[in-house]
Design brief:
alpha/beta; eight-stranded parallel barrel; two-stranded parallel ribbon; 12 helices
Amino acid sequence: MRLGVALDLSSQEPVRPQVDRTVTMLTRAERHGFDSAWVGESYHAAAQPFHLPSALVVLAHLAGRTSLALGSAVLLLRAYSPRKLAYEAALLDQLCGGKLTLGLGLGRPEVARRVGLPAPGPAGAAFDATLKLLRDAWSAGPSADAPVAIPPPARRGGPRILVGGKVAASARRAATLADGFYGATNYGDDLLIKQAAAYWSCRGERPGTVATTRFCVVHEDAATARELAARHLTAATGYYTARGSWLGADGPAELELPMVGTPDEIDATIDRYVRAGVTSVQLRVAPAGTPPEVARHTLDLVGRHVLPNWHDTTAPDLGQEVETTR
């Protein structure tokens, strides 16, 4: 099991002060032994408490301000020309020393319209074609036939790719065409576990990754942790609730907060995830409206009392999974 930090950067306030606060938080996370920082993106018509568009721009800035591995959770493919994405991801992989993991999701059809791109063809075929183009672009040497010369990524073969999605085809795509599966914040545990099982069934004996993002508030007292979550996570959780976006294995579901509680409760949740085949969890400790001291206390408690039970800090990079023991 590997533990990282998922970042919430609101489009409702200036970006630079948010990023500066984030870097301070990541410095704390580094000291505790967290291994990675993850940025999502969204393309809304109105400002939202999370995320910003263009996650790669934010990650490129962070590459010069943290030694943590970097990941996207997730980029929305409908917002990108595939070849431009190949170019920018290769550059970012160089900037962060080969420590980039590219989490990819399709995004809603209106995303393409909002960024001025033509609507793609059938979703599954377009996704598969993009994955193949990325791999080919990162693996090919210089060619006079290439429309744009793609700089070689720092890591041979390019960044690790994780694929998100709530249907069985997404888990199969993650297992056969990518390096791993990514479960979104709004996936209930039963959906996450179902997709993990489908991924590993297709993956077989090959090494792989099943990652997820979870809201996280930790306190020594369970009731206090839940009260803090109810007070400070509302803006972020309400975004999903208002859209009916909480998803279970059988369809719409209710809000779940399995990473809110005491250190022992968080440890028990991670134990359950590991037994289900989850290998990486990113903690959203500072959504919009969360006081810095609450986020710091969560990081400190997880860093001191949970992370040492699970986290192997000897693994050289985010994409190389290791056997978890206790």
